[in-house]
Design brief:
By secondary structure, the chain is of the alpha+beta class. It has 2 helices and 9 strands. Strands 3-2-1-6-7 form a 5-stranded antiparallel beta sheet, covered by helices on one side. The protein has a two-stranded antiparallel ribbon with strand order 4-5. It has a two-stranded antiparallel sheet with strand order 8-9.
């Protein structure tokens, strides 16, 4: 004879491929072989599933990947000014604690038996001193992340699991989004 504990409820799993809007509960920096990264964990998900965003530097020497994560989470923006060229100059507090309680759109994908979170995120709808993000903007950034997933992540895994851009339920915005 045996006894089983059976979870009952809606039967759905929070682990499913595609886009999810999640709240950050913990974030911390780390270093892997000399490359800085930011790990981010989310509400209602175990510590075994997190987003890892590696630092990337553009041709101008400015880090952009972790900065974009803060930007899309609407976190840490302290001051916005305009340069002589008309670009926005943002003073950003990149303390990981600034992310806690903020929301991001993250993309889950299956990697073998496990789910992973793509490092490329998309914003939620919000407005701040720097900019505002609409549903169209979100679809644009989701399409951008899906393209990255299809062109790089899937190819490197040798997978043919193609993600169609229509999973974002709309057309991708064609206008250039600054930053």
């Amino acid at each position: 004879m045996r006894t089983l504990k059976v979870k009952t409820g809606n039967g759905g799993s929070k682990f499913s491929s595609g886009w999810h809007t999640l709240e950050v509960v913990k974030a911390e920096y780390g270093d892997w072989n000399g490359t800085k990264y930011l790990d981010v964990w989310f509400k209602d998900y175990p510590d075994s599933i997190n987003l890892r965003c590696y630092s990337k530097t553009g041709k101008d020497g400015e880090e952009f990947a972790i900065g974009r994560l803060f930007r899309f989470a609407n976190a840490g923006i302290m001051e916005v000014a305009k340069s002589d060229g008309g670009e926005a100059i943002v003073k950003l507090n990149d303390d990981p604690k600034m992310l806690i309680g903020k929301s991001l759109n993250v993309f889950f994908y299956k990697d073998g038996d496990y789910y992973r979170i793509l490092a490329n995120t998309a914003p939620t709808v919000f407005e701040n001193d720097l900019e505002s993000f609409t549903e169209d903007d979100i679809r644009y950034w989701q399409g951008n992340a899906e393209k990255y997933y299809n062109d790089y992540v899937n190819k490197s895994r040798g997978s043919n699991d193609f993600v169609a851009s229509d999973t974002t339920e709309g057309t991708t915005a064609s206008a250039e989004v600054p930053f």
